Structures are given as structure tokens and as C-alpha cells.
Amino acid sequence: MVDITAIGEVLIDFTPAGMSEKGEQLFECNPGGAPANVVVVLSKLGKSTAFIGKVGEDQFGEYLTQILLENGVNTKGLVKESHANTTLAFVHLKEDGDRSFSFYRNPGADMLLEIDDIDPEQIKDTKIFHFGSVSMTHEPSASATLKACIQAKENGALISFDPNLRPALWEDLEQAKIKIKEGLVLADIVKISEEELQFITGLTDLEEGSRQIQTQFKVKVILVTKAEKGCFVRFGSGSKWADVPGFKVHTVDTTGAGDAFLGGFLYQLIERGCSIERIRDEDWIPIVSFANAVGALVTTRKGAIPAIPTYQQVIKLVQSTGVDLSKESYRPQFHYSPPAMWMNDPNGMVYFEGEYHLLYQHHPESTIWGPMHWGHAVSKDLVNWETLPVALSPDHNGAIFSGSAVVDWKNTSGLFDGGSGLVAIFTHADIYPDSDRPRQRQSLAYSKDKGRSWTLYSGNPILSDIEITDFRDPKIFWMEEDGVWVMALACGDHIRFYRSANLKDWDFASEFGKSDGSHYGVWECPDLFELPIDGSNQKKWVLIVSIGDNPDYPEGSKTQYFIGSFDGWKFVNENTPDTVLWLDEGRDNYAAVSWSDIPEEDGRRVIIGWMSNWKYANYTPTSSWRGAMTLPRVLSLTNRNGSVVLTQMPVQEIEKLRKESISWSDVAVTQESPFIHKTNDDLLEIEIDIDIRSGDEVHIKLRSSGQSETIIGYDPEREWLFIDRSKSGLTDFNSSFACKHGARVVPENGSIKLRIWLDRSVVEVFANEGLVALTDQIFPDKPIDNVWINTETGRAELNSLHIHTLHSIHMPECNTEQIARRVNV
Ligand code: FRU
């Protein structure tokens, strides 16, 4: 199945290219043709595309086929015609970059496309089918175009149509109108200019004209392009529309701008599973804005295809005009997420001179995983984050995989001229020379300016092992008792410990875990630290180990921990080897590691995890970015029934975000008489204490005004706390996403206490003071706007309930000081 197939003309645009020495006009040969431009845009944005059309058996035909191929377009449907030449168009540019055309097409090969030239399979296997009216000016291509389009529609493809009126190509303009109307009858999506709208409807008013097209032809989306002024879009069945402003750029040639715009729009549609119905009202503006940016960028260079921007250039333009992060539909509002592009594991977390540094696995050019860099953000309070430029980029030793950072207070590394500074140790990932075997080696980078710039150490890599392939994610810390640096390193199915005096030379100390804990996936991202038990003087060591995805396990990647002792050399598990302790019982908390160097007077061990899962991380339905972090959480150890276990709670600083709070007590709920709280806010903190002695199952339902519902439930019979996200909204991007999962929670004094944070597309649930945590992403069809609490059958008593609405950290007025003041009043 390809994402999009276009039918129609691919031709040569001869664009003015100055004067010859003799003073004659020169023309440059550029590939063009509206439907071809559209598929090339989509190819460049990473979608799979195919093209159906005809070129002559000439140099130009050869050249165009080559260009489409080079741009990743499937050209199986591009046929050669021996009875006519490839169509040529001469473009005449006016001062302002606007243009007119003269066509050399009597006939051109594109006009001779016949239905028999088209392989029916190609029409069957496409999500979107795109066409225009240039291939409908003459027979036989007019019938071939319409027939192919009808077949594609019957096969379930979405139909995209660009009337693209070129009066010079029609013998009779009335005939043009008839054919365009035939196209409109088939279309789900229409891109039309203001002039074309007037030509078809006789109306200059965009609202009225587009309504006429909508009602007369049942078109689902009408995009009226207004050149540099942007686009008017009508959508939905009623009277919904938006006028989305364009981008100011330096225009040199508008050729292909409309096609690029449409390519950008269709890209966004494909990203949303090609379902127009699924697009939420508030998403139309960012979607069309993205399309406007693609269109604008194409005008900044000459030609159409050569001027098509990359995804990164588009996002840069969109971001440069200050996208409002508070308005993106799934963008978490109080969890860190990168302003744009891909993010996975947290890395290099260190506190230094008043700042918490959060570095992370980052692909700055894509929303899917790729060559890894370290992105970088800093915070003074673990609530508000400032994104800094990328800290580390791939070099000759490879990509920058996960790792950690410390303050080298005593200049043990000798890198800081007697002072102190930041040292990061991470995995350099490439492949062994002349092979395709991955090579992972540990390297060092340091910063003398509070992390604002980083230098890769000249002696890199500093630790290698030719035997072990999965050899990565070093976590380093200072072991005060021994006056030595310790490194925990993931080695496939176990953790190795190394020691160093200077952070550069490392000696093997011991290994742990080949037969301990869970092994359903590769071991990754360790962390090792000591914590007091229940605040006493007694302490134990905690070893955290993440486990990668295994296709046979629906839960995907997950993080486990071990409790034991560590003497600077060796970790000893105090539980039996088959004991498995999970850090989080939800699906979306991976690669969690803790901050280094939090001052002793603070004394907290604060951890943060990547809020996604390798099972589907690359497919979650966000558009300009992908990936977010959990709330920073404080870890503690507690004694339960003779065993020591971890507890975790978000850092208290998060409470500064509370905006309005409402409390209830002693509320009885049954199945028929639910507690219902309507809210305009999808940023909530809920504190609830439920008396579960009746033995009836209780549901806390986070509902949207659409169909979405996420249930946080407790089943007293099984003593089981769960999240059910099977109806939480968009789930079909991966078959494991719609699921119900949870963990045992034992009631205390006949009740369970939950604290729940909802951040637009994220739910974090903590039970009984953080003994159990469940972290899940959700993608509701509409913003969550009501909280329901009821039982399955029978009755339950809500001892107490507090619902706080929360501020967004992306709203400028929400800096922490102001919030603190508000809370204090
Ligand atoms: C964990 C992980 C690490 C690796 C990094 C690459 O999520 O697979 O083991 O260093 O991601 O991005």
C-alpha cells in the first residue's frame, strides 16, 4: 500500500535564467507538472508515493523519469509514448515572482494516457489518489483520469483534486467548467485558488463560495489558497472554517507553491491515518499552517521540484514564527517535550550551579528515531524548562547514544584547569569497519561553561569491548567512601561495573544479572544509587535496569529494579534471582535514570523517564514532535511486609502549577449515580481517597466530549489498580496500544489513595503514597473535559476528593514566581 498515487502531467518547465552574452533570454530546464510536484513533496517528506502518466520517448521523458526515481517516487505507472513528445511549458516570471505559461503540447505525451495504460493494482493499493484538470483537457487522458479516479474511490482511497485551471490549455472554457465539476463530484479534498473558486461558483466571497462547493459536491475539505496571504479552509459538515495566515518569505519564483502547499496538507493527513473525520477542530490551524510553510518555502528558490524543502526546514519556519506550544492538541503542558522533532531517553542529568540539566536522545531532523544527538534543556525548579541548542552531535566515532553526566568537583579528569566542570560519558555508536555489526564504545565530553558548549575528548573512545555488541548507556557516579568513580554499563543480558580515578581510564570491577530479574528484552540504561529506608539511617542500594521491546510481549519496553548492596566493586541482589520488581506498571515509562549531584541539603534522588514505549514510539500520532518525559519523581525506599521496595512521587515543586482547586468529601457513588465534574481544562491533578470496603469496582473516567474515555479503575476483589486505555481515542497506530493493564495495590485501612496527573495526552497515577505508579500516554479524540466516578455495580464512598486545574508551562504568564504568589494568597 502506498500513501499517495497521483495521475496526470509531468513535464518540463523552462524557467527564465537571465540573459546570454548576446543579450538573449536564457531558460533553465526544470522538472514540473502539478501532480508530479505533489508526489515529490510527499516523497521528500518521507511518504511512499507513485505516479501514473505519460512522457515522450525522448531525452526529456528520460530526464523526468530519472528525477521522479531519484526523489523516491514509484514510476511503474509512468509510460513512454512514441507518437508524441514530452510536454514542455515555458514560464514567464513577472517582477514579483508571479508567472504565466506557454505550453508546447500539440499533442504532448501526457494527453495520450489511456485507461489501458494503467495497472489496476496501482489504483487498488493507495491511501490517497490525487488528480488535476490538466489531464482532462483532451481525450484519451481525460477519460483515463476520471476512470482511474472512480476506481480508486471505489477501492476506498481518499480523493484529492486540484482544478488547476490553465485557460491556455482548453479549447473551450465551458468545457473546462464541466470537467472540473466532474472532478469535484469525486473529490474528498479540493485545493482551489480564489480565481478558480470564482470561475466555478461565480462568487468572490470565500465563505460563501466554499460553502457552495461543499453543499453542491459533498467535498469534505476545501482549501482556498490565497498565495502569500495563506489559506481559507472549510471542513466538517456544518459551517466550520478557518482562515490561516501565510508566512513572510523572500519570494523568487512561485512555481509549484500550490502543489507544495497541497503536498504539505496531504502529509499531515497521512500522519493522521488519512482520516479527515479524526482531525480535531483545533488541529486545522496547525495542519494548514504546516502546509502554508511548505508552500512558502518553495517560492524562495527557482523551479518547483528543486525548491521542495525538507521536513526540518518546514518545521523551522513554522517554529520561527513562534508556534504556540500551548495550542498543540497532544502537546503535554507540564511535562518536558522537545519543541520539535524526536526525543527518547533522558541523558546526562546533572544539577550544577542552580540548574537541573536534562539532556536527551534527540533526532533534530525528524520525528522518528535516527542518528542520535543529545538535545538539552535546563530548569531551575524541575517544572519550567528552557530548551538549549543541541549539546552533542555525531562525529567520526558515530552517533551519540545514551549516557550520563557528573560534576567533576575535584578536577580528577584534569580537564578543568584546577577548577570544576561537567563531564558526560556516553556511548558512541557506529559499525565495525567493513561489516554491518554494530559497534558501541564509551566516550567522554566535557563542558567548562555550565553545559552551554561541550567538547568531545580527543582520546575518545575511552572504553571498548570487542566481544560484546550491546555495550552501552554508561551511568557514572562518585563513590565517596572509596574516592573513586563507578560506571554501571548495560551489556546485553547483564550489567558491568567499572572503576576509575580520572573518568578517562576505566577498570572492570564485576558483573551482575545474567540470571536475575526479567530478561525478555535487551538490558539497557542502568542506574545505581543508595537510599535510606523509610528515612532512617539504614540504607540499601537500588539498581535500575530498563528492558527493550520484545515483539512477543505486548507490554513492550519496561523498567525493572533490584534492591541490594554495593561495596564499590560488586552489586549483590538481596531478593531471589527470579524476583521481578517493576519501576512503573504503566506502558510509558522507559529508560528512567536519576540526577547526579543534587546537593546534600536537598538530599532527594530524583528520577525522570521517557514517556513512551519502543513498541510504538515511532508511530504515536503527534505531528511536529514526538516524545515527552515523565514528571520528575522523588524515589524513596520503604519496608513492606518484610521487603524493601521503591516508592515514587512527583517532586513537590509541581504543586506550584495548581490554578483552581475544588474539594469534596463523603461522596457516595453507584453505577447509576456517578460523580460528574465538568471542566474546560485538560490539565488536572486529582487526589482521591476511596473507601473500597463494599468490595465494588470503582472507575475514574477521564472523558472527552467525543468518544474517548480513559478509565483508572480499582477492583477490590483482585486488589488490582488498572488503567484501561482501550477507548482512550486514537489507538490504531499499534495493535498493542489499546489495552488494560495494572498492578496489585493492597488497601490501607479499607481505602486506597490515588494521585493522578492528567496532562492532555498523558496520565500518571500514583497509589498509596507512590507504592505503585502507572504512566500511560493517551490520544483523546477531543480534549478531556469531564471526570466521572462511579462503580461497576454496587456502591463506593469517596472519603475525599480534590481536583486542581493546572497552569501550562508553555503560557508565558505562568512563570513559577507568579504561580507561587497566587498559591500563597
Ligand atoms: C534505550 C536505548 C539505549 C540507547 C538509546 C539509543 O531506549 O535503546 O540503549 O543508548 O536508546 O537512542
Report what the structure shows.
With 825 residues, this protein is an alpha+beta fold. Helices cover 15% and strands 40% of the residues. The radius of gyration is 30 Å and the shape is globular. Residues 812-825 have low confidence and may be disordered. The structure holds beta-D-fructofuranose. Beta-D-fructofuranose is lined by residues 344-345, 361, 372, 401-402, 427, 472-473, 524-525, 591. Residues 344-345, 361, 372, 401-402, 427, 472-473, 524-525, 591 line the site of beta-D-fructofuranose (FRU).
Characteristics:
15% helix; UDP-N-acetylmuramoyl-L-alanine:D-glutamate ligase; 47 strands; Jelly Rolls; 11 helices; Tachylectin-2, Chain A; binds beta-D-fructofuranose; globular; 825 residues; single chain; alpha+beta; six-stranded antiparallel sheet; nine-stranded mixed sheet; disordered C terminus
